[in-house]
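Quick one: sequence plus copper (II) ion SMILES, need structure tokens.
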Amino acid sequence: MSFENPAYHIHRRSVEGHEGHWVKTFDPPQANPPTPELLAPTNPVPGLMLAAGYQDRVTTPNTVQRDLLHGLRLDMWDGRRVEMFVFTDQDNPSTQNGNFPGATIRVPRGTIFHCETMTHGGPHTIHWHGLEPTPINDGVGHCSMELGRYTYQFQPNFIGTYFYHCHRNTVQHFEFGLYGLFIVEPPDAFSGPNWGGYPRRIAGNTSNFPQFPELNTNPLTSGDPQAYTVPYDVEAYWVLQAVDSVWHDIAADHAAFFPGHGTQPGINDIFYHGFFHDYNPDYFFITGVPIPVRAPGPGTIPPNVVIPAALNSGVSGTQVSINAQRNQTILIRCLDAAYGTARVTFPVDVVIIAWDGRALGIPPYGSYNSAYPVKAGTPIKLSVARRFGALIRSSVAVNSFATVEFRKHEADRLLMTARIPFVIS
Ligand SMILES: [Cu+2]
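Reply:
Sure thing.
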């Protein structure tokens, strides 16, 4: 559905006659399925990236490219090399060796989003986690399809923080690095000359928090592209990542540990490689920045880490370590991409405006939830794949650290304590 334009409806159709394509595949598919009901894509970002010099071509107009499984031998902080699975973008030279996490995809709300996908060495998928594709575009390998080449299509309709990841043999392909952030922005975010800069806007309802007075309270049905959004001056990504190097040594082959199928599909399939249940990460990262100490730490990432615009859909200045000014509005987008739980503790009071890509307290949806404050020093608990959005504005200087505790979820045991520099001057 679309709030603006009923012509943009993406229809659903029966899978009748296509069962061979749209069901679970144990082995690489023999043919690449066509995308049903293909509409003309409307995503302006690839063209803007090209014009700004971050890409050297746009293979298909208004379409993002993602290739999967270019082997990346990632050097750990202690010199150990670990085999990763990574995304590349054939249009973007900054991604040619693969990135961990994958380059961030940012799009305006309401766009008809296309991603042309090519896999290497075996089937993969892309699951658009928290977004709302039709089932065959949802990319959950074990219940839709796995593929060699495909054009994913969907229309994101809620401004917020999501992520994309491979969903084939998920425990392996996700943990090995096949994921990246996916951010839905207001419909007008990429339409002006300042499309790659700040201030930007995020969906939220801060009406109970007078430190964020610039809330736009026009109803969503008004057609105002900034309805129920708040501007922010500084943005940070905290992608919590953990790698068990033993897994990567044992299962460097993408297909080595995929289940076999028995004589009765779904009845006597062979899930015999149980070692993936034993997760003991020994390398930890915040948005690709290593925590350069042995577990359990604590270890600290460097100050002033900034995401390159070429890996961020052309948006400049997104931070990892926080370096802001007093009375600026700071938005932190946090994703737990480790295969365990985490506790995130801020050195300042924050307001949680969103969970899992959906803003809290937005009329007409928001009668059952609301944005809420979290005091400095109070841990925020996360589990795998969850995201929160935190807004911060401080009138006083801060020179401290945020703390991330990576935890093993079965026993709730502390694995590593990471510290993120947090400076407001
Ligand atoms: Cu994969």
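The chain has two domains: 6-185, 229-243+280-424. The helical segments are 19-22, 45-51, 170-175, 245-250.
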